[in-house]
Amino acid sequence: MCVTIRSETTTDFYAIREIDAAAFRNDAEADLVDQLREEGYARLSLVAMEGEQLVGHIHFNAIHIDGTPALTMAPTAPA
Hints:
The protein has 2 helices and 4 strands. It is α+β, with helices and mostly antiparallel strands.
């Protein structure tokens, strides 16, 4: 099957939590993603889809390194 990549939508949040929790075998990463979204650090969040099924997630967040704006990639979660 063909995998497509698209930006997350609010309707993906539950499935993203499930993917992240399964990939890391706990809820810590899923909780972190929720917190980063809620606190405004999320800049880009992409999902991988096989047909209608969400099968992966990658999340980019705003950070500063020595005062320089940058992005960090975390977490990356395949199903």
